[in-house]
Automatic annotation (TrEMBL):
InterPro entries reported for this sequence: CLK_kinases, Kinase-like_dom_sf, Prot_kinase_dom
GO terms for cellular component: nucleus
Highest classification ranks of the organism: Eukaryota, Fungi, Dikarya, Basidiomycota, Agaricomycotina
Signal peptide as annotated in the record: none
Residue ranges of every copy of the Protein kinase domain listed in the record: 32-368
Organism: Pholiota conissans
Name of this chain's protein: Kinase-like protein
GO MF annotations, alphabetized: ATP binding; protein serine/threonine kinase activity
Keywords on record: ATP-binding, Kinase, Nucleotide-binding, Serine/threonine-protein kinase, Transferase
Length: 379
């Protein structure tokens, strides 16, 4: 049987090396009590903890990195998180740093970071929606918040690098009394034994916000942007094995990335939240994929790319088998909403990174600022 949660049964060099935390375990000299498992990703697991802060009991998220990811996270994610937190990043909806420490397990040493708690992800919200497509006004609110967070990061020369439906969250009422009664009303954490290992099943927190809330409520949502695991500051080098929503500059032999790569990812995310389809895939040689982008986006390939090693024998001729942005959005949206959404997505998805909107320009873009003009069936 394959492991139902993070692979506690694998050693670090095979993608394991997770910390095997247990419910009600007290960690870091008893300071943090583990209450629930919120979830896990390829590099870490995240737990809801209860602890004292300024003479009050509060809930926080405890992110425990795998042994293999801990050193890297110490050099990149941790300093970026601290720096952004010092800048009152709660105004930007970015994670708030509350402490860090190291913890030993049989597998090795784990970096642990304490942060504020984030609840429902945009991905979870999307899964609940009809056809997994979110209404226009919901997408506008989520994308606006993401652009706002990116504006704050980019001002500090930080590239987020992981803008997708898993990094955008809805906040919730974190008042200790309120959250405690909510947790008490839900099923208690479940553990499962597999191959001699005991794992706790993930229980993400969910907000009362719903995908089909009306626009007047959605505009008040507390939207946050987390997951700084792919963030880089000042010097940007594409991470091996990370796809950046296939941003074309990352596909070249002389691959690059930058804060403008975030804008590409934001454009792809917007399209995906509206249509529940991915605009581009990772298939075929670079020349073929960039020719498809050229056709889908109706945008010219920068001349300087034509001498790149991965662009030998490039021609603009794409196969006929592609869906234009207009056609894709027309399938999902009311006809009155198609044009403005197309304009926004295309302005994010320019092949030449320099031509893409800045994060501030995204926030000022007509499609996001004229949020009244939603023709979805809910408004
Ligand atoms: Zn609407």
């Amino acid at each position: 049987m394959s492991f139902p949660e993070e692979p506690l049964d694998l050693p670090p060099h095979q993608g394991g090396g997770y910390y095997p935390a247990a419910i009600h375990q007290r960690i870091h000299n008893g300071k943090y009590e583990i209450i629930r498992k919120l979830g896990y990703g390829p590099l870490s697991s995240t737990w809801l903890v209860l602890h004292e802060s300024q003479n009050k009991l509060i809930y926080s998220a405890l992110k425990i990195f795998t042994v293999a990811a801990s050193e890297e996270a110490k050099e990149t994610e941790l300093p970026i998180l601290k720096a952004m937190s010092d800048l009152r990043s709660f105004d930007l909806g970015l994670p708030i740093f509350r402490g860090s420490f190291w913890k030993q397990s049989n597998a090795g040493t784990h970096l642990c970071i304490v942060m504020n708690v984030m609840a429902t992800s945009a991905r979870a919200l999307q899964r609940e929606a009809d056809h997994s497509r979110l209404p226009v006004h919901v997408v506008q609110t989520l994308v606006y918040a993401a652009a706002n967070a990116l504006a704050g990061l980019h001002k500090e020369k930080v590239m987020h690098g992981g803008i997708d439906a898993d990094c955008i969250y809805l906040g919730m009422n974190m008042q200790t009394k309120h959250l405690k009664s909510m947790l008490d009303s839900e099923p208690q954490p479940t553990t499962v034994d597999v191959n001699g290992f005991t794992t706790v099943l993930s229980q993400p927190l969910s907000t009362e916000d719903k995908w089909n809330d009306k626009q007047k409520d959605v505009v008040d949502w507390d939207v946050q942007v987390g997951n700084l695991g792919h963030a880089q500051r000042r010097i940007y080098t594409p991470e091996k094995g990370h796809n950046y929503s296939f941003a074309p500059e990352t596909l070249l032999e002389r691959a690059t990335c930058s804060p403008k790569t975030d804008i590409w990812m934001l454009g792809c995310l917007t399209y995906t939240l509206l249509t529940n389809t991915e605009l581009f895939d990772g298939l075929g040689p670079t020349t073929h994929r960039i020719a498809t982008m050229h056709a889908v986006l109706e945008d010219e390939v920068p001349n300087s790319w034509l001498s790149d090693g991965n662009m030998k024998e490039y021609t603009d001729a794409a196969s006929d088998d592609f869906t234009s942005i207009e056609a894709g959005l027309a399938l999902a949206l009311h006809k009155d909403d198609v044009g403005p959404a197309v304009a926004f997505v295309k302005s994010c998805l320019r092949l030449d990174p320099q031509e893409r909107l800045t994060a501030h320009e995204c926030m000022d873009h007509g499609w996001l600022s004229m949020a009244d003009a939603c023709s979805c069936q809910f408004c």
